[in-house]
Design brief:
Layout: H1 3-18, H2 25-32, H3 36-43, H4 46-64, H5 70-84, H6 90-98, H7 103-128, H8 135-156, H9 159-179
Helix pairs in contact: 1-2, 1-4, 4-7, 5-9, 6-7, 7-8, 8-9
């Protein structure tokens, strides 16, 4: 494992468990088993490290949800929650802790959320057809179901994702019925 990978893995685990602002640089160096000099060399500081962690997590998450159907999307989300844990969206937590006032963090969060929205839109388009008039509305509804179930999974577990999946399935079925698909 490279030094940078070790640093990002350790930092992500600490940030996810304790929060971004609550995690000290001393905790990060100890968890990564490296000197502060090495940490700063590879991360450039805490903001740079948060940004790098978010970028790496975005890549892993987007690969995990690179699927073709709503059923597969919710299965991937359930699997993600089981393997990564249910502590809510790390991106939204980073944005909340930074108060939207740290451009590097805000940019990483907004880039992730835009890619996530685009992935959901692509899947909904495959479900309904590219020219369906309710495509954007259904994309937004499913996005909200996913974001809400990710938060609710903190205290409800994966049952929250199962419920969101059922609601999304009903929305798609009703949209198909209403438009005669």
């Amino acid at each position: 494992m490279s030094i940078k990978t070790k640093l990002l893995t350790s930092a992500e685990r600490l940030f996810d468990q304790h929060g971004f602002m609550s995690t000290s640089m001393d905790q990060l160096t100890k968890a990564a088993d490296m000197s502060s000099r090495t940490l700063y060399k590879h991360a450039g500081g805490k903001t740079g490290l948060v940004q790098a962690v978010l970028t790496a997590r975005d890549k892993r998450f987007m690969q995990a949800i690179d699927v073709q159907s709503i059923d597969d999307l919710f299965a991937a989300l359930q699997n993600w929650t089981l393997t990564e844990g249910a502590r809510g969206c790390l991106f939204l937590r980073a944005y909340g802790e930074a108060g939207g006032e740290t451009p590097e963090i805000t940019d990483a969060v907004m880039a992730h959320k835009a890619a996530f929205h685009a992935q959901i839109a692509r899947i909904v388009k495959a479900e309904l057809g590219a020219n369906h008039p309710d495509l954007e509305l259904l994309t937004e509804q499913i996005l909200v179901l996913i974001e809400g179930s990710t938060s609710a999974a903190i205290y409800r577990g994966t049952d929250a994702i199962t419920s969101a999946h059922q609601a999304a399935t009903l929305l798609i079925a009703q949209t198909r019925k209403d438009s005669g698909i």
